[in-house]
Structure formats: structure tokens, C-alpha cells
Amino acid sequence: MSRLLAALLLATPAMAQDIPACGSRTAITSMLAEDFGEVRRGSGLTYDDDAPVAAVEVYANPETGTWTMLTALPTGEACITAFGRNWSDAGPKGRPA
Fold first, then answer.
1. How far apart are CA 8 and CA 21, in angstroms?
2. CA distance 12 to 53
3. With contact defined as beta carbons under 8 Å apart, do 58 and 40 qualify?
């Protein structure tokens, strides 16, 4: 998994779209904390009708500015769906768009 993540992080955006980065949510979030110092900054649920389907979570390191978005399933699996740099917290009330 670490080779896959390294390839994903070094890939260009076009290349990154072709690399699946899925696995155990526990393993991925541990790696984000240990290797990048990222902690969960926010989350929300996706729904199909009225039933929750998945959680979307954003992990970030406010000091380095790196961030990662995960889609986590009820099965315990998760996929990295986006990542980047220059994270900025909106603050408790958010900022106007």
C-alpha cells in the first residue's frame, strides 16, 4: 500500500485519476497521521434516498498544508478520492464563498 500511495502522491493529476488508492480505512487514516501529520478536519455523509451510503472525510495538516479526501464505506474500506496542498481552514463559522 505504501508504494501505491507514494505513486499516487507523486503522480500528475491526470495519472492520479488512473491509480486506485483503496484499502482499510484504519490503515489509511493511520498512514495519513503517521506519514503526513494529517488529522480529520471535517466529514459528511452521502445518501441514497434516506439511507447513508458513505462518509466523505477530509484530513489535513494545517502546518504543512497537505490534505486528503477519503470516501469511507460502512464495510470499513476507504478510498482516497482527492489530495493536494495549500489547505486552509474555513474556521468555525466558515467563510463566504
1. 7
2. 30
3. yes
pLDDT for the residue numbered 96: 61
- Cα–Cα nearest to 58, from 72, 46, 44, 69: 69
Contact 67, 75 (CB under 8 A): no
Q: 39-44: which pairs have CB atoms within 8 A and are 24 or more residues apart?
A: 41/67, 41/87, 41/89
Strand partners, 69: 58, 82
DSSP H helices, the chain, are 2-10, 13-16, 25-36
Q: How confident is the model at residue 51 (pLDDT cuts 50, 70, 90)?
A: confident
Count helices and strands (H / E) in the chain: 3, 5
In this predicted model, what pLDDT tens digit does every residue of 2-31 receive, in sequence order?
444 444 444 445 444 444 489 999 999 999
Q: What is the pTM of this model?
A: 0.73
Whether the predicted pLDDT of 69 surpasses 50: yes
